[in-house]
Design goal:
The structure is a single chain. The protein has a 7-stranded mixed β-sheet with strand order 27-33-32-28-31-29-30, with helices on both faces. Strands 11-12-13-14-15 form a 5-stranded mixed β-sheet, with helices on both faces. With 823 residues, the chain is of the alpha/beta class. Among the domains are: 110 residues, 2-Layer Sandwich (GMP Synthetase, Chain A, domain 3); 84 residues, Orthogonal Bundle (Non-ribosomal Peptide Synthetase Peptidyl Carrier Protein, Chain A); 203 residues, Glycerol-3-phosphate (1)-acyltransferase. A hairpin with a 7-residue loop joins strand 7 and strand 8. The protein starts with 8 loop residues before the first strand and ends with a helix. It has 31 helices and 33 strands.
Length: 823
């Protein structure tokens, strides 16, 4: 039924070729190890290897039921399955034996353990194995699947279910006796079980097993055995794609060829142009088969441009598992293809429902769960989608994963995740609802960030990614908060995000930190003591100094100065990024230190250091704009101000809240030219990119500085301006308000004020957010009011007191101005 004695090679492992006759003999030999009653269950708990295949068919030879288990499961997970289905025996390997024995110890019914490497097999097969099912409707296989929901369920599949799926693929004529493929995916899952074992062995193909899943081993095998197709999940094809396009993009000519081939949209041309890439994959690939999760259409188009046919399909374990496939002669990228002829598919209330000969018999021991998904012979897949006029299926999301917000809005988290993944530095992202708002768990590309000298990971992701995304999307799709994690997101073995585990992941990371062994040497103790004093909480060895302890740019400068004073180590931002956890940093200190002197960091010394800095001085563009905008400010905007007389003689730090892109000009409008000549504005380098913007900055007393690259030098330059008797305008929020409300102030201005004894004049800007909203091209008419508050003199105050006082005064006066405008 599923295989026969073809006169050729069936399996290859360790360079040894195993013929179909030998395959059948080995099945018979393994069958002799089993003493089963009809319908008894046997589990297989092992990595992919030929013995896995022998054991599987041997169970069928004895009319038993196979129960494959993920070889990477924990003892607890294995015990759950064994207790649920109660197998008579379990096949295992040396690699999984220890976990299995722990699992069996927790079982009420103790199954026999058969270890492949230690089994006493007869030298010769006693008989030909019986591979024809007596009762095609009887259960042949139970596959436990938790999917993305978290509750493991045993899917019962019959011989008829499985064989009908084999016949569907056979009808596509994509696999035959000349095909050779690698068993890359674990066979415990329905997709690779069908695609890399049952189907090729039914068709007379050859299956190759690898000892290790390294890229070198895969490429070597592709070339050596002239592999004709690769069955994988999108993550695998994404890795291949990234490796190949990375090399292409590093060469201008190759990059242009890829662009040309994309436009040409021809497989044949792509094969010719990218013959070298074809050769890298062995030169004989007919198809890439992708399933298990959604394939990125951009990746699929690039494969086409390089001459590879990638067939995306759709399935679920409950459907044995395949439902649809892209026909090889007419692939529609972005679609999961057409439903097989034997299957009837409908879309009801946006949900895909299916019936056909491959519909499962039900969930083992779970009748209520079965009734929920299987109704009158129809599987309610939980997948949302539609069928186009040509019969191609498009999946748009998962019904259970659709987030329903408190305002009644429905949204698909995958849509948001895909948009966030298009930004640089995002390696993985998962979105879920937390306290009625959207929350993102982000695993950044730390290596790329380090390569690009990104110092402030949290700030970069907040402003360069989350903020940009939020500004481009509908209000109900905005991300309100996010967390950065240190490792990959929890996924099923086929790459789908386990969304229910995202919140748990954040808790597990913290628990893992607590269990870690604490280093017992002086350098660690001194570092831990210092950091505890900064963050005012417990410090654990494997916590990231920025992401977990929350050190901001100023804290990092203080840390760098502390390390230099205490240990004699000069650490660059790159060094700090490389040694980013407390443990790594302490080990680096232990290795590199030249002394131990527990000195206190002093900002006064840092800011009073003399630096070689030529202070620019030109305000003619600012004065020109001030004059040019007077009619607009007087008649259209109705710009008003009070309290300008509160500005004391220079030097002064002016600290407005930040509502619009012209806030600096609003301030300048009320400064007399004599004062304006001595007043400087601070702008981030990333906001002054064009040559026109740079010209304007040079001639408007605007200091363009890169705080991400060197905040210490930035503060020293600002201090140099003030020490020469000038004023400085600093926006303490660090960015424009996204909703009109005042954001938390950063304390850099307070440090400079305190150490140089320079007064601070807070300024309230009210009304500019509404008139100059983000993205608007022309201001709305109305009133904008500025209020210059009384100066704050730093004597007798610390940094935090100055920061808090300035922010609270602005908040209080802002509310008063807002109320006066609405009355």
């Amino acid at each position: 039924m599923f295989t026969k004695d073809y006169p050729k090679t069936a399996l290859i492992h360790n360079d040894k070729e195993i013929s179909y006759r030998e395959l059948l003999e080995n099945i018979s030999r393994y069958s002799s190890l089993l003493n089963l009653e009809k319908g008894e269950k046997v589990a297989i708990f092992s990595e992919n290897r030929p013995e896995w295949v022998y054991a599987f068919f041997a169970v069928w030879d004895k009319r038993g039921i196979n129960v494959p288990i993920d070889f990477m499961s924990t003892a607890e997970e294995v015990a759950y399955i064994l207790n649920d289905c109660g197998p008579a025996a379990v096949f295992a390997s040396r690699n999984t034996r220890e976990v299995l024995e722990k699992a069996v110890a927790e079982c009420l019914k103790k199954p026999e353990i058969i270890v492949f490497d230690e089994a006493s097999l007869p030298e010769k097969a006693s008989s030909q194995p019986l591979l024809e099912a007596e009762d095609k409707d009887s259960v042949a296989l139970i596959i436990y699947t938790s999917g993305t929901t978290g509750s493991p369920k045993g899917v019962m599949l019959s011989y008829e279910n499985l064989y009908s799926n084999v016949e569907c693929i056979t009808g596509l004529d994509i696999i035959g006796h000349n095909d050779r493929l690698i068993a890359l995916l674990p066979l415990h899952h329905a997709f690779p079980l069908q695609g890399t074992m049952l189907m090729p062995l039914h068709a007379g193909g050859t299956v190759i097993f690898l000892n290790q899943m390294s890229s070198d081993e895969i490429l070597k095998t592709l070339q050596k055995y002239k592999v004709t197709f690769i069955l994988g999940v999108p993550r695998l094809f994404n890795l291949f794609h990234a490796a190949v396009t990375g090399k292409i993009n590093s060469n201008f000519f190759a990059r242009m060829l890829l662009k040309f081939s994309r436009m040409a949209n021809s497989y044949a041309l792509g094969k010719i142009i990218f013959k070298k890439v074809q050769t890298t994959f062995g030169g004989h690939i007919n198809y890439f088969i992708s399933g298990g999760a959604k394939l990125d259409p951009i990746v699929a188009r690039d494969y086409k441009a390089m001459g590879f046919k990638i067939l995306e399909g759709y399935g679920m374990t409950e459907m044995s598992p395949l439902i649809s496939f892209n026909p090889p002669e007419k692939i529609k990228i972005g679609s999961v293809g057409k439903a097989f002829d034997a299957i009837t598919l409908k879309v009801v209330d946006d949900e895909i429902i299916i019936t056909g000969p491959n519909v499962m018999k039900g969930y083992y021991n779970k009748p209520s769960d079965t009734q929920e998904i299987l109704k009158d012979g129809w599987i309610y897949t939980g997948d949302l989608g539609y069928v186009d006029k040509d019969g191609y299926i498009f999946i748009t999301g998962r019904k259970k994963e659709i987030i329903v917000l408190p305002n009644g809005k429905n949204l698909n988290p995958e849509e948001i995740e895909n948009k966030l993944l298009s930004y640089p530095y995002i390696k993985e992202v998962g979105v879920f609802q937390k306290d009625g708002q959207l929350f993102a768990v982000i695993y950044p590309d730390f290596a790329l960030m380090q390569e690009d000298n990104v110092v402030n990971i949290q700030e970069t992701i907040k402003w360069n990614i989350i903020d940009k995304y939020n500004l481009s999307t509908a209000p109900y799709k905005k991300i309100f908060n996010f967390a950065i994690v240190h490792g990959e997101l929890p996924r099923t073995r086929l790459g789908k995000i386990k969304r229910y585990s995202l919140a748990q992941m954040l808790q597990k990371e913290k628990k893992a930190f607590r269990k870690a062994e604490v280093p017992d040497y002086q350098e660690y103790k001194l570092l831990e003591e210092y950091l505890r004093g900064v963050v005012k909480k417990e410090v654990l060895p494997d916590e990231h100094v920025e992401l977990d302890l929350g050190l901001d740019s100023l804290d990092k400068i203080e840390l760098q100065v502390h390390l230099e004073k205490t240990f004699g180590i000069s650490m660059s931002n790159e060094d700090l990024s490389t040694h980013s956890t407390v443990r790594k940093l302490a080990a680096y200190i232990k290795d590199k230190r030249t002394k131990i002197e527990n000195e206190v960091m002093q900002w006064g010394k840092v800011l009073k250091e003399e630096i070689d800095y030529d202070v620019p001085h030109s305000t003619f563009m600012l004065k020109f704009l001030k004059l040019a905008f007077k009619p607009l400010f007087k008649f259209y905007i109705q710009l008003e101000a009070e309290g300008v007389e509160n500005i004391p003689p220079a030097p002064v730090i002016i600290t407005p809240n930040h509502q619009s892109f012209i806030d600096g000009l609003l301030i300048a409008n009320f400064l007399k030219n004599k004062t304006l000549n001595k007043t400087y504005f601070f702008a981030k380098e990333k906001n002054i990119k064009s040559s026109l913007a740079r010209f304007f900055a040079r001639n408007s007393n605007i200091l363009v500085l890169n705080i991400n690259r060197d905040l210490k030098l930035t503060l020293q330059k600002i201090a140099a301006i003030l020490k020469k008797g000038n004023n400085m305008v600093i926006f303490p929020e660090g960015a424009r308000s996204r909703d009109g409300r005042v954001m938390n102030f950063k304390k850099s201005f307070a440090i400079i004020s305190k150490e140089l004894n320079v007064p601070v004049v807070p300024v309230v800007i009210e009304g500019a957010y509404e008139k100059f909203s983000i993205g608007s091209k022309f201001p709305k008419p109305g009133k904008i009011k500025l209020k210059f508050l009384k100066p704050i003199y730093p004597a007798g105050m610390d940094y935090d007191t100055i920061t808090t006082l300035a922010q609270e005064e602005i908040l209080k006066q802002s509310l008063a101005l807002k109320n006066s405008r609405t009355q």
